[in-house]
Write a structure and sequence with these properties.
The complex is a heterodimer of chains A (about 100) and B (about 170). With about 100 residues, chain A is mostly helical. Chain A is elongated and about 55 Å long. With about 170 residues, chain B is mainly α. Chain B contains eight helices and no strands. In chain B, helix 1 runs antiparallel to helix 2 and helix 2 runs antiparallel to helix 3. The radius of gyration of chain B is 22 Å and the shape is globular. Chain B starts with a helix and ends with a helix. The chains are: A mainly alpha (about 100), B mainly alpha (about 170).
């Protein structure tokens, strides 16, 4: 197995763990964290392809990963604010109980 | 595939799996910091120092703290609820199917000749100076847009999380 395949396999495992968490947890914060893990898996792929790719001096993978981390941070802030707003309305952060759209 | 990579990968997988599998939500976030630190270690191992330290500052530092705050602000001490959904088995089956598909594709894919032949033996250099140079010249427009996006997200998060009942206008009235 080449080092690139090792990195890609780790990234696939990280993505699957995040997907399992996002699909199975009831706590809204932990579902958001599962989505963050899937974003991390994508970043790991960017860095792996940059490291083992043909033109590492172009720095494309590193810069894409940096921008992706910035977008993920913005997403986490807005997502947690939405969870707080939903908690104030439903008085729970259990996703199985947030089962209607009307206020 | 060195021992360093295997140890970091095991740390990452153990931390993230515990973060998604433990019952107590605060324990989950603590395990998550271990997983994020493992990912940062893999970035450092791959030679991307700047991304590794950004990962530590943003994820281990900021996102984990935000998640702990959100969990503690939405915590019901009296309610001991089942932490997993009723359909948790199906979620795990779907995630396992996704992983098996990806792993099969990765292990069966022929190594592209361009990657196999010209893969650098030495770690490619990505110093902070080179990254700053690229950000100030070639990637200056994305940098400005990301600044605008972060400002909008900051203001939007504050407005969404603000309680309409104790907004400042009503206190003045």
């Amino acid at each position: 197995m080449t080092p690139l395949q090792g990195c890609l396999l780790l990234s696939a495992l990280l993505f699957s763990i995040g997907l399992a968490g996002a699909l199975t947890r009831r706590n809204a914060v932990l579902v958001l964290i599962g989505i963050e893990l899937m974003l991390n898996a994508a970043n790991l792929n960017f860095i792996a392809f940059w490291r083992y790719g043909p033109h590492p001096e172009a720095l494309t993978g590193v810069l894409f990963a940096v921008f992706s981390i910035a977008v993920a941070a913005a997403e986490a802030a807005v997502g947690l604010a939405l969870i707080l707003a939903a908690y104030r309305h439903f008085r729970t952060n259990n996703l199985d109980r947030m089962n209607h759209l009307k206020g | 595939m060195t021992a360093t990579f295997l140890i970091l990968a095991a740390l990452t997988v153990a931390g993230t799996a515990a973060a998604m599998g433990l019952r107590n939500a605060v324990h989950c976030v603590l395990a998550l910091t271990v997983g994020f630190a493992g990912v940062a270690g893999i970035y450092l191992y791959l030679g991307a120092q700047f991304v590794g330290f950004t990962q530590i500052m943003v994820y281990v530092g900021a996102v984990a703290i935000l998640a702990v705050f959100a969990i503690m602000m939405t915590h019901h001490p009296g309610l001991a609820e089942q932490p997993f959904s009723r359909y948790a088995v199906w979620g795990i089956v779907i995630a396992a199917a996704v992983f098996l598909t990806l792993a099969r594709a990765i292990s069966l894919a022929p190594a592209p000749s361009v990657l196999a032949t010209s893969a650098p033996a030495a770690v490619p250099s990505a110093t902070v100076q080179q990254i700053g140079d690229a950000l100030m010249h070639r990637y200056v427009l994305p940098l400005e847009i990301i600044g605008l996006l972060l400002t909008a997200a900051l203001i939007g998060a504050v407005i969404i999380a603000m309680d309409p009942k104790d907004s400042p206008q009503e206190e003045i009235e």
